[in-house]
# Entry
Amino acid sequence: MAERAEPEAAGRVYLVGAGPGDPGLLTLRGRALLEQADVVVFDRLVHPALLEFCRPDCERVFAGKAPGSVAMTQEEINRTLVAAAARGFSVVRLKGGDPFVFGRGGEEAQALAATGIAFEVVPGVTSAVAAPASAGIPLTHRELAGSFAVVTGRRSGEQDGEAVDWSAYGRQPDTLVVLMGLAELERIASSLVAAGRPAGTPAAVISQGTLPAQRTVTAPLARIAEAAAAAGLGTPALLVVGEVVRLRRQLQWFERRPLSGRRVVVTRTREQASDLAAALRRLGAEPLEVPVLAIEPRPFPADLDWCVTNLASYWWLCFTSAHAAPPFFQTLRDHGMDTRALAGARVACVGKGTARALAEFGLSADVVPARATAADLVEALRSQVQPGQKVLFVRGEPASDTLVTGLQRLGLEVRQTVAYRAVPDPHAAQRAREVLGDGADAVTFASSSAVGHFLEAAGDDGRRLCAAARVVCIGPETAAAARGHGLQVHAVAAEASVPGLLRAVLDALAGPGPAAAPPPDGGPRAAVGDAGRPPALQPPPPEPVPPDGGGEVSGGAGGGERVPDAAAAPAP
# Structure
């Protein structure tokens, strides 16, 4: 664990905008401050992935608010910020969206200024702009809208929406964005119509904006509340009113990504999960990270030390996992050595991912088989080796004996050393309970041992999930292990790497087959089409312009679904 930085004589508070939801929309400045923070005070809508940027010893304080639930009052938050900074610590106040756009950042800045605490404001991407952009709705357009306004649907102390003077927004601005107004949507819409907005004005409600679960409903203003309720949209959500909403039919892009709305379980170790999770997010999926293994480096340091100091006696070095590279090269450095110590040996490894890991330390692999299996590595070496040559196999634990047995049959003398041990992640069972409650569309496995550990951690719920979802494996050996546990494997990566596994997920979710796995308790899940697969994977119907009284919803696992058309809105 990293040592906690010594507090400075005078601390500082950074009011940082976390962005609209998608962790990729955090600013570079925001990330840099999270990486060096001593204390982070964060809100409910902050994506959990952002906290991964914090140091292990960073103190994390949850200050979230939800309807009927308040972790900390605003006064308690203010006192926490002041107290932490007074102790000399670097404090990040991480707030959803932008701290100065309906985020009470101004109030917190006032409290800091009143007590003489130094502070800095780091703007964030507000959902008022980002969510419409993700839904294909520009807030301004030269031909349709030359102005826009952002309004809160509820003000401090308000109980029924009446404190907002909706008459001021009857005609202007051209585009109106209303935040935190879902509970009062019918009142807001009727007030705007009464104030002079035409009942047929295009309107949209966007829920979970910029997140994989984003859903968008469009309807005339007079019927938008009915359409949103019929679609079952939940918070966080915002309302957009104006002619620019019509452009969504042409400009929507978010829901058309290949994995839009899909939920994919990632069982890789914490160190490896981020790459696959980020790639899944780029394609529209929601990664459900359940790391079932943790890596314990150098469990037998004396043995690895001995092998490193005797490298000159080996003709070949073999690696079968990227995890082996860091502890091996750390041991080299501990002995004052670098890759020059390997000048007399040739290097073989299983898979392009392992080869890339070695390349990061300046070592190029001489032999990499086309298929990432131990048996294929033995075949690739058959014409390269001579009987009697010594091989150092740098491996993990546990490991199969396929490679050792195959090399010995070639007449080679094999010395094994364990660079790391894969052990069950102690938090796997709790994490599985937290993230699997709403079901999943696919489950990925990146190692043979991960299969058993996942089923053990997730219990009967995990087995039911795998039975209903698509099971995707990184290679043939992992697939064999999955089948050995009674699972049906739907896709196997052609290349044992993150890109290969991602392509396999795309293949698995593109073809006909079982519907998305339901929640473990058997509760409702996404609607399933007649062909037995989720609607997002069926050929999309043409998207006609809805009539003035019509309603339309898209996004999430049910992208392309229609809600019943509402009755035509009366003319104002």
Notes: DSSP finds 17 helices and 23 strands in the chain. The first strand starts at residue 12 and ends at 17.
